[in-house]
Design goal:
Elements: E1 2-8, H1 12-23, E2 28-32, H2 57-70, E3 74-77, E4 80-86, E5 89-94, E6 98-106, E7 111-112, H3 120-123, E8 128-129, H4 132-135, E9 144-147, H5 151-161, E10 167-170, H6 180-188, E11 192-195, E12 198-206, E13 209-217, E14 223-226, E15 230-233, E16 237-238, E17 269-271, H7 283-304
Parallel strand pairs: 1-2, 1-6, 2-3, 6-17, 8-15, 9-10, 9-15, 10-11
Antiparallel strand pairs: 4-5, 5-6, 7-16, 12-13, 13-14
Helix pairs in contact: 1-2, 1-7, 5-6
Bound molecules: flavin-adenine dinucleotide (FAD).
Length: about 300
């Protein structure tokens, strides 16, 4: 079967593009490599989505997914490895299968930035995590450490402080870069211990499990050790679009360049959400982009007839 639209990534942007496209009567294949909902599914609380007071990221994602399932989306849990254009069709090569579509919407978001200190990769799932919502419960009543200084790190600290013993929140610079409301909430919690000017130098491990962290104070050069079994790294995100560079142009940071219609270099290929070059990366802006990408992808499809 050749789908009208193949959407790569089931985050808020991709799922919104699916919603609009299905409602326009198009056949839609949604391909996701990891988690339905993308990044927001790992957020404990979404509080800045208009008209919804408070909702967990997971519930928000599940609601949106159910909405497009009800409309008949084709969904596959498969990672897109490569896409080639062949006349007016696209051949989509995935890890497990291959698919065909007449147009493409790239909604691949961003992935967690790693801290690149020795043993990091080896300890992922053995004490090192990038998602407090996913892995926080493993450390109930334990001491944990969060590395990061912006909203994600602040949100993780609040969440973990509900059930962990001590939550060390260590930042590289001398301040936070997140929203004041979150900074205030963090400061109100007695079991969150904030330490600034710390640069991670070592993951301490024993038999493949994290046993501690050693930081260097960037002002005094003193070393400081934290005996923790859990470390949550929240130091930002990076795009992963190189595999699509045969179809789209990327800026110096690897984000996809589009115009206001979310069109890319290749006719029939659109990009939306966090994976594209833009100033503000939020759920509302991802959803906005997804709707626009879908509307112009549908116009493109109609022009083929
Ligand atoms: C902890 C946390 C808290 C946040 N809190 C808020 C908040 O309170 N309010 C707010 O507005 N925003 C928040 N954000 C930001 C918000 O989640 C993002 O801006 C939004 O999710 C972007 O949506 P997206 O669909 O563009 O990308 P993403 O959510 O990143 O989704 C992209 C999806 O594409 C998939 N994918 C990537 N490459 C491939 C491939 N090759 N094949 C198949 N699938 C692929 C990924 O697995 C992912 O599921 C938060 C983010 C985090 C991490």
């Amino acid at each position: 079967m050749t789908y009208d639209i193949a959407i790569i990534g089931a985050g808020p942007s991709g799922m919104t593009a699916a919603l609009y496209s299905l409602r326009a009567g198009k056949s839609v294949l949604l391909l996701e490599k990891e988690t339905i909902g993308g990044q927001i599914s790992s957020s404990p609380l979404l509080e800045n989505y208009p008209s919804i007071n408070k909702i967990s990221g997971l519930e928000f994602s599940n609601n949106l997914f159910q909405q497009i399932i009800d409309l008949g989306v084709g969904f596959e849990l498969d990672e897109v490895i490569d896409i080639e254009k062949d006349k007016d069709e696209f051949n989509i090569k995935c890890q497990f299968s291959c698919y065909k579509s007449k147009s493409i919407i790239l909604a691949t978001g961003v992935k967690h930035r790693h801290i690149n200190v020795e043993n990091e990769e080896k300890l992922i799932g053995h004490g090192v995590s990038y998602c407090a919502v996913c892995d926080g419960a493993f450390y109930k009543n334990e001491d944990v450490c969060i590395i990061g200084d912006a909203n994600t790190a602040l949100q993780y600290a609040i969440l973990l402080s509900n059930y962990c013993n001590k939550v060390y929140l260590n930042t590289l610079f001398d301040r936070f870069f997140g929203d004041n409301i979150l900074i205030e909430r963090v400061k109100e919690r007695n079991n969150i211990i904030i330490e600034h000017n710390l640069s991670l130098t070592k993951f301490k491990e024993n038999e493949g499990e994290l046993r501690g962290l050693i930081f260097k104070n960037t002002k005094t050069n003193e070393l400081k050790e934290f005996t923790v079994k859990g470390c949550f790294i929240a130091i930002g995100q990076i795009p992963d679009n190189k595999k699509f560079s045969n179809l789209v142009s990327l800026n110096n940071d690897g984000f996809i360049i589009t115009n206001e219609k979310m069109e890319t270099l290749t006719p029939g290929v659109y990009a939306c959400g966090d994976c594209k070059e833009k100033q503000v990366r939020q759920v509302v802006t991802a959803i906005n982009d997804g709707a626009i990408a879908s509307i112009y992808a549908c116009q493109y499809l109609d022009s083929l007839k």
